[in-house]
Amino acid sequence: MNEKKKMSLAVQIFIALVFGIIVGIALTGHASVAETYIRPFGTIFLNLIKWIVTPLVFFSIMAGVISMRDIRKVGAIGVRTIVYYLCTTAFAITIGLVLANAFKGFFPVLQTTDLVYEAAEPVHFMDTLVGIFPSNFVDPFVKANMLQIIVASLIIGFAILLITPEQDSEFTMVTMLNDVFMKAMEMIVKLSPIGVFCLICPVVATNGPSVLGSLAKVLLVAYLGYILHAVIVYSFTVSTFAGMSPVTFFKNMIPAILFAFSSASSVGTLPINLECAEKLGADKDVSSFVLPLGATINMDGTAIYQGVCSIFIASCFGISLTFPQMLTIVLTATLASIGTAGVPGAGMVMLAMVLSSVGLPVEGIALVAGVDRIFDMGRTAVNITGDTSCAVIISAMERRRKSRK
Ligand code: ASP
User: Fold this and answer.
1) Residue 124 above 60 pLDDT?
2) pLDDT grade for 49, boundaries at 50, 70 and 90
3) What b-and-e string marks burial along 7-18, b requiring 16 or more CB atoms within 10 Å of the CB?
4) In ligand 1, which atom is closest to the CA atom of 299?
5) What is the dihedral of CA 76, 79, 81, 83, to 10 degrees?
6) pLDDT-derived band at 210, boundaries 50, 70, 90
7) Residue 183 and residue 190: Cα distance in Å, rounded?
8) What is the residue-wise DSSP string for 31-100?
9) Nearest alpha carbon, ligand 1 atom 1
10) How far is the CA of 377 from the centre of ligand 1 (A)?
11) Distance 298 CA to ligand 1 centre (A)
12) Are the beta carbons of 268 and 195 closer than 8 angstroms?
């Protein structure tokens, strides 16, 4: 019964995606119809998701901390999660750079005169660090600042652990509220096929096949990188560290991958990703912490995209990057992907940081901006898959640790 239900959501989303693309193609040339009458329903759906995601993260992390019953255990899981995220991201950017260098000869050389791109003010690393800690209780919720919400929920979760006697560690108010928001999330997730249709259709109608034009080859290389990274890295990690067949992993990830693809938002995909992680057997207390953190700081797809675009932009300007410059890109793109918010288009903004770290002209972003959404759909799908692979692995490690005790 459960199996049937699981398949049906994946199939529904898939049909919605294909249908959305077909209707989108049919509406090319009449994009305003799709923008005016179809996109608003996608926006309603995304608004509901955005609305639910902050309380969901807040209560699920607290409930996770409480059920772990041990602050040290949360710390150990946190460290392992961050190490996994950093290593896979560094690997992703390396794949991006290697592929882009291999296929550089096929890239088009676009005109770079008259390029204008207004880069956002660069943020200093120390300011990013300070910005993780909230200075007002409600502000993180109002601004949906995920990292601040994570910090707040950890502190309060720890406080609850410290004041609650051991035997009474089911702190019912938090657990109850967590259940309520989980239920509300499930209700919203059921609407995802409609959401997917209404989100993808205007994107296809507006961009049309012609926009791909000269950038098709760069897009292809980025997508090749996304696929290779997912297939090689996640297959290897889930089978080695969690003993799970990669086929099982990817099959259960289909709803979240398709949703990420059409919404281009890791944070928006969080509710559906939590469900997929549960079906994959990840512990709730682990995934309620690992997935929101990943949706905010773990961006392997974004890193691949930044690698490919750096090489492409450099070649348009007739610049050849040296090996040390590429190492700098690996470092900055890993940091940039941590600073990238899990919302559409954020990765392109952070590309400015990567380009300027090796002295490439930031205006080059204008070369790829027109098709950013298409890059973004693929990179988001990879981003969230990486998060779930981590939840599956950490859960398996925790289970092994428990059984050794
Ligand atoms: N849209 C991506 C995400 O939400 C971030 C990016 O733009 O790279 O994961």
Assistant:
1) yes
2) confident
3) eebbebbeebbe
4) 9
5) -140
6) low
7) 11
8) HHHIIIIIHHHHHHHHHHHHHHHHHHHHHHHHHHHHHH--HHHHHHHHHHHHHHHHHHHHHHHHHHHHHH
9) 344
10) 8
11) 10
12) no
Q: How many CB atoms lie within 10 A of CB 340?
A: 27
Q: What is the mean pLDDT of residues 29-57?
A: 88
**Polymer length in residues for the chain:** 405
pTM score over 0.70: yes
Q: Which amino acid is at 48?
A: L
* Centroid of ligand 1 to alpha carbon of 159 (angstroms): 33
CB neighbour list of residue 359: distance below 8 Å, 6 or more residues apart: none
Question: What is d(CA 149, CA 16) in angstroms, rounded to the nearest whole number?
Answer: 33
Give the span between the Cα atoms of 342 and 18, in whole angstroms.
24
CA-CA distance, 336 to 321, in Å (whole number)? 19
Q: Average per-residue pLDDT in the chain?
A: 86
Residues touching ligand 1 (Cβ under 6 Å) are: 264-266, 299, 302, 340, 342-347, 376, 379-380, 383
Q: Whose CA is nearest to atom 8 of ligand 1?
A: 347
Task: Give which of 386, 86, 131, 146 is closest to 267, Cα–Cα.
Answer: 146
State the distance from the centre of ligand 1 to the C-alpha of 24, rounded, in angstroms. Answer: 22
Nearest atom (ligand 1) to Cα of 305: 8
Q: Which residue has the higher pLDDT, 63 or 98?
A: 98
60's tokens: 């699920």
Q: 273, 376, 382: which to mutate for ligand 1, most atoms within 8 A of CB?
A: 376
Q: What would the two tokens of residue 350 be?
A: 């952070």
Cα 65 to averaged position of ligand 1 atoms, centre (Å): 27
376 C-alpha vs ligand 1 centroid, how far in Å?
Answer: 6
Output 58 or 113, whichever has higher pLDDT: 58
- Written as one letter, the residue type at 204 is V
Distance between CA atoms of 219 and 370, rounded to whole angstroms? 12
Question: Tokens 């950038």 — which residue?
Answer: 215
Q: How far is the CA of 113 from the centre of ligand 1 (A)?
A: 29
At residue 8 the predicted structure's pLDDT band, cuts being 50, 70 and 90, is: low
